[in-house]
Amino acid sequence: MSQDAQLRIISALVENKPGVLFRISNLFRRKSFNIQSIAAGPSETAGLTRITITMFSTYAQADQVMKNVDNLVDVRGVEPFDASNASVRELALVKLSPGAPSTRPEIMNCIETFRGNVVDISPETLTVEVSGDPDKINAFISMARNYGLKEVARTGAVALTRAMTTNEEIAKW
Amino acid sequence: MFGIPGGANMPIYDALYDQQSFQYTPLNERGIRHILARHEQSAAHMADGYARASGKVGVCMGTSGPGATNLMTGLATAYMDSSPVVAITGQVPSSVIGTDGFQETDVVGMATSITKYTFQPLRVEDVPYSVKAAFYLAATRRPQPVLVDLPKDVQQMEDDIEFPQSVDFPNYGPLPEPDPTILKTIARMILESQHPVILGGGGVKAANAYLELRALAELLFAPVATSFMGKGAFPENHPLSLGCMGMHGSERTNKLIPECDVLLVVGSRLSDRTTGKIEKFCPNTKIIHIDADKAEIGKNFKPLVLSLVADAKKALVAITKEVEAGMLGRHREAWVKKAQEVSVATPALDGNGTYLSGVETVKMLRRILPPKAIVTTEVGQHQMWCEQHFQVIEPRTFFSSGGLGTMGFGFPAAIGAKIARPDVPVFDIAGDGSFAMTENSLATSVEEDIPVTVVILNNRMLGMVAQWQRHFYNSRYSAVRLGNSPDFVKLAEAYGAEGARVETIPELETAVGRAMRSHVTTVIEVPISPEENVLPMLPPGAGLKEMIVG
C-alpha cells in the first residue's frame, strides 16, 4: 500500500430502498476495499438515508470508490470527509468486569475523564457509554483493558461537514 | 427477444402467445418477436449481438434458478463491453422467496456486480415502471445490462395500470455538456503538439461517434489507434489508421504510440490488454482522457494530464470546433508519413505448408466479404488474428467479447446481429474450442430461419492456452488437446445446417460465396496447424515496446 494510505471517511446520501446498502458494500468488496466501519440512518429528508463509511485506503483508491458509489443509480451524492472539514463522532458501549470493588473509584475516575456514562451496573459488570471521535474511543478502550474489558460494541463513525469558519469570524463571537 | 421458458416465467410466455403481435413481421415492427434459444447463455449473447448491431436494447429472458444463472455469463459479457441488454428473469412466487424453493436463486444478488441496476417488483403496479426504467437505464449514459426479476405471482396479477411516459432518477440524468474551460485547454494542448495520436475505444462506438472521430483525426492529421474494443471505431483502411494497439496489436503501432507527445484517449478504459504494463505506458506523453464514465478517469492510468467526462460524440464535435481555426493551413507530413509506415506492417506467417494458416484465412475472408458484412468472433487465437488482420471498415460491423473474453459469444451474437441487420451477411469467425461452447445455437438459427455463417479455424486445440504453454510453460501441453471430435461438417448437417470443409484458398472462396447465397446457416471448417501462433504479442507485464515477434 502506498504512502498516503490512511483512514478515510466517505459520506453518501442514498435513497432508502431495499438493497442500497448491499449495492454499496458489494462495490467495496468487488473493488477489494475493506470497510472499517459503516453507519447508516435516516437523514433530514424523508426517504433519504445518510451512510458514513470509514476505510483504510490511499487517496486514489478512495477517489475511485467514491466515483463508483456516486455512479450507483440510488445514490444522491458522495462526499469525502476528514477531521479538518467535518465533525466526526462515534458511540461505543464498553462492558467491564472490574473484579475487586476497591478498583471501582479508579474506574469511575477514568470514565469521568472520558465523559462516559455508566448505563448498566451489576455486582460483576459495568457498562459504559462513551462517545467522541474514533481516536478518543480507541483511547478509552485501551484504558479499559486495565479494568477487565469484556465486550465492546461500536457504532462506527458518523460525520457531517463543519461550517467553514475563518479565524476572524471566530474572533467576532 | 431471445429466451427460454420455464416454470417461473410461464405467465409471461402465456401472454406472448396471446398477443397478436407475436406474429412478428418486418412490417409489424412494434410486435415482439421471440426467438427460442437452446441455452440461456446464448440467449443473452444473442440479445447482446442484437444490441451491438442495432444500437438498440436487446432483451433476453430465462426462468428462475438455472435459467437465470445461465444468463449470467452473457450479462457479464455485456457488462464488460458496455452493451445495453435487458434481462427478464422469472422468480419463485414472492411468498416463497428466501425459503430455498424449487429453482430459486438469489438472482438480484448474483447480478448486482454485473449490471447497472436490478429490479424486483413485488407488486404488479410496480411492473410497468420497472420495465420502462430498465430500458432507460440500459440505454443511457454508459450502456450496461439491467435485470428485471419477476416473481411468478406478480406475473399472474392483473390490474389496470398506466404505463409511465417517463422515469425519474434524481442522481442519474443525461451526461453534462462538455466543460468549455477544459475544452479550451484540450484544444490548446492539441494545437501545441507536434505528434498527436488519438486512441479510440469502445466508447466511440457506443456513442455512435464514428464520423466525428474521423472528422477530428483528418483535421488534426492525427493517426488513430484503437483498443480491441474500439476496433472499427475508425475505418482501418484509412490512411491515418494505426489499427489496434495492445497485447496483440501491431508491433509498429505499439512502438509508435509512446513517441507521441499528446495522446487523446476517447472512450477507452485503458485496460491492461491495451496499455501493456501501465507503469511503462507512454511515460513522456501528455494524456487527455475523455470518457462517459467518471469512474474510468484515473482508474487504470493515474497520472493523467487532463480529463473530461462527456459523451464522446459531443466532446469530439466540440474539440473539432475549437481547433478548426488553429489548424488552418497546418500539416504534419512527416508524422503522418511515419504513421503510414506503421500501418503496412506484416508479421511473419508460420503455417507449415500442410495447412491453410489462420492468418491467411482471416486475410482472405476480408478480401471476400463485403465491407458492410458483419463479423463476430469467439475468443482465442482466431480472435486475435482478426484483431491483427481483419480490417474493419464500416461502423457496427465487428463484434467480439473483448472485456470478459467469453468463448461461445460469437455464434449466438451473430444470430442476434442477423436479426438486427437481416440485409447483410453475418459471419462468426470461430475456433473449434469456442464454437463447441454454444454450438447448439445451430438449432435456433435453423429453426428460426436466421442464416449466418460460421468459419471454424480448427486446430483441434485450445489454441491460445496452448500458445501460452508453448511460450511461458516450456511447451508442457496440459489439457489443451481437443482431438478430432466432433466432425463439424456432420454436426452442422445433423442440425439441418450446411457444412463444408475447405483446405485451400479457392475452396474457401467457393464455400464463402455459397454460404452468402444460402438461405440456411453454413458451417465452414478450415483445418489449421495446431502449432500456429498469434504473433506478435506483448507478454504479460511488458511495456508496449517489448513485443515478442517470433
Strand count, sense and closure of the main sheet of chain A?
5 strands, antiparallel
Number of helices of chain B: 21
Topology of chain A as a string of helices (H) and strands (E): EHEEHEEHEEHEEH
- CATH topology title of the largest domain in chain A: Alpha-Beta Plaits
- By DSSP, the count of extended strands of chain B is 18
Distance between the ends of chain B: 46 Å
Please tell me about this protein's structure.
The complex is a heterodimer of chains A (173) and B (550). Chain A is α+β, with helices and mostly antiparallel strands and 173 residues long. Chain A folds into 2 domains: 6-82, Alpha-Beta Plaits, CATH 3.30.70.260; 89-159, ACT-like. Chain A, domain 2 (Alpha-Beta Plaits), CATH 3.30.70.1150. Helices cover 29% and strands 39% of the residues of chain A. Chain A contains 5 helices and 9 strands; from the N terminus they run βαββαββαββαββα. Chain A has helices at 20-30, 59-71, 104-113, 134-144, 167-172; strands at 6-15, 35-42, 48-57, 75-81, 86-96, 117-121, 126-132, 149-154, 158-161. In chain A, strands 5, 6, 7, 8 and 9 form a 5-stranded antiparallel β-sheet that branches. A 4-stranded antiparallel β-sheet of chain A has the order 2-3-1-4, covered by helices on one side. The mean pLDDT of chain A is 90. With 550 residues, chain B is an alpha/beta fold. Chain B has 3 domains: 2-156, Thiamin diphosphate (ThDP)-binding fold, Pyr/PP domains (Rossmann fold, 3-Layer(aba) Sandwich); 180-343, Rossmann fold (3-Layer(aba) Sandwich); 358-527, Thiamin diphosphate (ThDP)-binding fold, Pyr/PP domains (Rossmann fold), CATH 3.40.50. Chain B has helices at residues 10-18, 40-54, 66-80, 107-111, 127-139, 152-156, 180-192, 202-206, 210-220, 251-256, 272-275, 312-324, 333-343, 358-368, 381-389, 410-420, 432-438, 441-447, 463-472, 488-494, 505-517, and strands at residues 2-3, 35-36, 58-62, 85-91, 117-119, 146-151, 196-200, 224-226, 241-244, 262-266, 286-291, 306-309, 374-377, 398-399, 426-431, 453-458, 498-501, 522-527. In chain B, helix 11 links the parallel strand 10 (262-266) and strand 11. In chain B, helix 2 packs across helix 16, helix 7 (180-192) packs across helix 12 (312-324) and helix 9 packs parallel to helix 12. Chain B is globular, with a radius of gyration of 24 Å. The A-B interface holds A 19, 22-23, 26, 30, 60, 63-64, 67-68, 70-71, 73-77 and B 108-109, 112-113, 116-118, 137, 169-172, 293-295, 297-299, 302.
